């Protein structure tokens, strides 16, 4: 019997809710509630703005924990590890990685994050939902990855589409837009 993804999502959400009750670390985001998102001056006003603690990004069974400092991230990771134990979940330490994005003109030092005394692998980039996130906070690695995937999808169509003389040019253009362009731009709007 396969586990129910909806039940897991509810279970995982309840675990994260327990963590947030006691935690003040993470990233606070201020946003307006009147629909005026792009007026930055209005964000400084205290009226009609809310501030929300964001400490995780979730997709299926993947979870990215967020914090502004290494110490804050270690605190978030400690709370997360304790909650996992309390809820009967196991963290795969082989798959768990830590990454630090340095501020502009700052120096990079790999983060020293651990779970139960075991240090996590510090990486300079990782892939989350198909996008490459790098420690220098640039999109260069993500763009290289996107271009490589688009070139690969273009190349795989060589025999069946591009060299197929029985297909009309308009059909080839539609295939190009549907396959190559969507591969290139996947996730670009976010």
Structure description:
This protein is of the alpha+beta class and 190 residues long. It contains six helices and ten strands, in the order H-E-H-E-E-E-H-E-E-E-E-E-E-H-H-H. The strands form five sheets. Strands 1-2 form a two-stranded antiparallel ribbon. The longest helix is centred in the first third of the chain and has 18 residues, at 5-22. The chain is globular. The model has no long low-confidence stretch (mean pLDDT 84).
Radius of gyration from the CA trace?
22 Å
Strand % is: 15-25%
Q: Identify the overall geometry.
A: globular
Secondary structure tally, helices: 6
Distance between the termini: 36 Å
Task: List descriptors.
10 strands, 41% helix, two-stranded antiparallel sheet, globular, 190 residues, alpha+beta
Give a concise summary.
This protein has 190 residues and is α+β, with helices and mostly antiparallel strands. It has six helices and ten strands. The strands form five sheets. Strands 1-2 form a two-stranded antiparallel sheet.
